[in-house]
Amino acid sequence: QVQPVESGGGLVQAGGSLRLSCAASGRSFDQYIMGWLRQAPGKEREFVAAISRSGATKYYTDSVKGRFTISRDNTKNAVYLQMNSLKPEDTAVYYCAAARSGVAPRAPDSYDYWGQGTQVTVSS
Fold first, then answer.
1. Which entry of 12, 38, 106, 114 is 20 to 30 Å from 45 by CA?
2. Which residues lie closer than 8 Å to 97 by C-beta, 6 or more apart?
């Protein structure tokens, strides 16, 4: 199994950028699909982005396409989320999560291991 730990959240003005990092302890990191999901106050947890085991395939929710980029470095057991052109509606707690292969990466229920989350606040 893996244990994700997020970092890099914070407060930023609309139009700004943040880079989230996720360090995953444990073995066989490259056997997991890695995803970023978020939860805003009063809302359900939602999918943001995911990346395949090799990094060759990336998935994004429509609202972040062209603004966010997910990447991973299997040599460092790390996954990243570069967030540009941030909007107030991106404000949420962002979670890094790991899923075994063969699942639907856009479904939050597909993920087996979750980090504790990092707060991202975008001011208008």
1. 12
2. 4, 34, 35, 36, 37, 108, 111, 112, 113, 114, 115
